[in-house]
Write a structure and sequence with these properties.
By secondary structure, this protein is α+β, with helices and mostly antiparallel strands. The protein has two domains: about 140 residues, no CATH class; about 170 residues, Phosphoenolpyruvate Carboxykinase, domain 3. It has eleven helices and 21 strands. A hairpin with a 2-residue loop joins strand 1 and strand 2. InterPro entries: HprK-rel_B, P-loop_NTPase. It comes from Pseudoponticoccus marisrubri.
Length: about 350
Amino acid sequence: MTLSDILDHLDLSAAGDAPFGLRVGHVALSIHAPEPLRSRLIAYFGETVGAPEGGARVHLLEGQCLPGNLSWTDWQREGGKSGRKDAIVDLDTARLIRKVRSGVTFVQAPGVAIALGPLEANESTVINFINTQVLNACLRAGWQLAHAAAVTDGARTLAISGLSGGGKSTSILRMMELPGTRFLSNDRVLIKGDPARALGIPKHPRINPGTILGNPRLHGMLSETRKAELRALPPDELWALEDKHDLIIPEIYGPGRMRLDGPLTDFWVLNWSHDTKQATRVTPVTLADRPDLLSAIMKSPGPFYQHPSGAFEPNGNTPDPAPYRAALSDVTVCEVSGRIDFDAIAKAGAGLFHD
């Protein structure tokens, strides 16, 4: 099977003839999507939506499928994660990717970005695919992908990654309570040096009930009954509970509270724990001396990424630390250790942005 065979089989016109545009940094996309998915995506992307002025085209084909039977290979997941998530088939000039649980399938090649299958039932997967096209373009331009959340006030940008225990989303949302801060990213931050910059993607936070329960501003996202159920859980069980909710930034914080780029000045790595009584500390570190912290920052580009050479990201490949150290060479990197204390980290953030 070739890419031409697949394109001949698919009906790209089903994506509609009224694309909408997205622009993130230097990256422009033209999104072709049928209704009602088109309207839902426009509402989600909000302030980043504009006219489709050139850029790479993304086609979303509800209900369509690939031709023939394919032999899929499981994509190896990053350390600490289990279960089958993605599977791939490599063609001469393209890669096919399938989400194992949902059956949503993708065709990725130079100038080709197609999602097909049960898209309307998997809107978050479609949003991730669109944002992946932004990531791919930036990676090919020399940016590095960090597994981090971030806020900026236009002059300073704080990115936060997490080792065991996590809590980066909750921490960043506490920073959003500070006057002048704007949301940059919840889970993916692109970084580049000389001078250090941070670029986010238009992806709203997907947060767990523990984050919602711990922030009074977010309580309206849950019913009173559900909040009572959650408060009855042991703290460790509440912390580990996975039940994602979309937090749409303009709905909670108002318009103008997102900014997808900023000068990268500070990077914190959460290495704290519920199992200690030591006070929370934010301590400057040197990444050359702490490769364990760098491992929390680095993020594989995943199966969708095609390198400038034309080769796709190899299965099981791990990021090279050297470009990350270079990108962060002028950034103040700190380890957050001791007990998990969001009041303490919010106080440290207030000192950072208003010193």
